[in-house]
Amino acid sequence: MNIKELLKSISFGESIAEHEAEKLRNYFLQTEFWRNIRNGTNDIVYGAKGSGKSAIYTSITNDIDTLFDDGILLAIAENPSGNTAFSNLKNDPPTSLTEFIRLWKLYFLVITVNVLNEFDISDEHANKVRKILQDCNLVPAQNKLSSFLKACSDFVRSFTKGAREVSTTAEFDPVTGGYAGQKFSVVFNDPSKSDFENGLIPIEYVYELLTKSLILSKIRLWIVIDRLDVAFAESEELETNALKALFKAYLDLAQFSEIKIKVFLRDDIWKKITSEGFREASHITKFQNITWNKETLLNIIVRRIIDNKNLVAAYNIDNSLVLSDITEQEKLFYRLFPKQVDIGSKKPATLDWILSRTRDGKYINTPREIIQLLNKAKEIEIGRLENGINELIDEQIISRQALKLSLDDVSKQRIEQTLYAEYPTLRQYIELLKNDKAEHNLETLSSKWNLDTKESLEIIKRLCDIGFFEEKGTVPDIKYKIPFLYRPYLDIIQGQASSDDE
Predict the structure, then answer these.
(1) Average pLDDT over every residue of 279-307
(2) Which of 51, 185, 339, 425 has a C-alpha 20 to 30 A away from that of 217?
(3) Confidence band (pLDDT; 50, 70, 90) for 500?
(4) Could you tell me which CATH number the domain at 425-496 has?
(5) What distance in Å separates the CA atoms of residue 312 and residue 183, rounded to the nearest whole number?
(6) Is the dihedral of CA 119, 77, 142, 165 positive or negative?
(7) Are strands 220-225 and 259-266 parallel, antiparallel or unpaired?
(8) Closest C-alpha to 490, from 426, 412, 429
(9) What is the reported pTM?
(10) How far is CA 127 from each of CA 187, 208, 362, 444, rounded to the nearest angstrom?
(11) What are the extents of the domains in the chain?
C-alpha cells in the first residue's frame, strides 16, 4: 500500500482511556505505574489530567476475571463512563464529615456483597454479611451503583443524634409462629454486650466477617474508584467533604489486611483538599504520583506505533528488539518523523519540540496532549497527500508542516475542554491576554486586567496553579510566561508584553 493508504490504516490510539480499553494491554500495562498497583505496592494514584490514571483504572476494571484467577476480587465503586453514581448526592449531601465517612464504609460493603453474589462466594461469613445488609434494607431492587448509594444514604440518615440509633427484633415464622432467627442492624458505634447479642452489629464487625470470608476463599478484595473529579464537580464544598471522608475511611479500613481501597485522583484536587488542612494526609503513605519524562513518553509513543500491524509489516519492524532498547526506540521514532520541525543548528530535535509544545506551565507533560497531536498530524498529513502535497522525506510518515499545524487543535482542546470548562471564572482573564506577547510581569497583567496589585496577584496565583503561567525569576523581577501549549489558540507570539501606559 502507498503512504496515504498506510496512514489511513494506522492510529496512535485514543487520548481518553475509556475509549480504548481493549487496546491498553498492548502498550500500557508493563509500565512501572501499573506494576506498583498490580502487585499491591500502592493504593493511591495521583496525576495530572491526561497523565494515565484512568488508563490504569480502565485496565484494572476490564481485567476482572484475570484478577479473580490471581486471587483478587474487584469491586468497582464508580461507573467507568456515563453518569456518575454520585450524581444524586449533590441534591441531598451528607450533613457532616462523620456522616460521609459512614456512607463510604457502608457503600463499600454493599457493592462488595454484590460482587460476592456474582462470583458465588457463599461461606458462613459471607452469608451472615448478606443477612445483615438484607435486614437493613441495603439490597435495593435495581442492581446499579446509584441504587446502592441511595440505599446507603437513606440508611445513614435514619440515625438521629442523641437517640438510640436502631432497634432490632426477633423474627418469627408467619405460619408456625415459631422463632425464625434474629434480625440484625448495622451501627456505627460500639454497642453494649446485650445490644450486640440482640442484633446491633458494629460496622467494623461486618468488615471482620468479610475478611474471614476472603481468607477462607483465599482471595483479597480491591475496591477501586476513579472519576472523582467528575463525581463532585458541581460543588467544591461537597467535593472537599467527600474526599476527606473517603481518605479517612481508607485509613480506618487499612486494619483489614485482605481489603484494599484503590483511589485514582487528580493531583490538583488532592493539593486543594490538603491545602485547606487535612492532618490525616501524612498517614497516607502507599501512593504514587504519575509523572512522565522524555524516555517514558518516547516509550509510550513507540508502543502505540508498533501496535499498528500494517506499519510494522511495511517497515519490517522487530517489536521485541525495539522495546528492549531505548536507543532502538529513538531510531524508530526518527525513521517515521522528521529530525527537526524548525530547521536550524539551535533548534530542538522533533521529540523535544513535541514535549516543549505540549507541556503546561508547571512543566508537566501528559500522554493525552501528545496522542492528540500525533493523531491530528496524521489527519493533516492525509489531507495534504490528497491535495497533492507530499513533503515527506525518506521513510517519514509525518511531515514537519503537519506537526506544526496540529498544534492549533491541541491548543484549542486544552483551553476549551480543560481550562475554560473546569475553571470558568478564570476565562475572562485568559481572554484578555489574546493577541499579545507570551511574557508578562505584575505590571503588564494588572494593566491588561484593570485590577490593583493585590487582586492581580490572586489571579496570577490561580493561573500558575492550573499551569497557565510558567513562573520565572525571583522577587521583585518575577516573569509569568504563557507556555507554547496555549499560544496558538490565543494568537500569542514570543516576546515581552508591555502595559497600556508603555
Answers:
(1) 85
(2) 185
(3) low
(4) 1.10.10.10
(5) 64
(6) positive
(7) parallel
(8) 412
(9) 0.81
(10) 19, 13, 51, 68
(11) 3-13+293-422, 43-285, 425-496
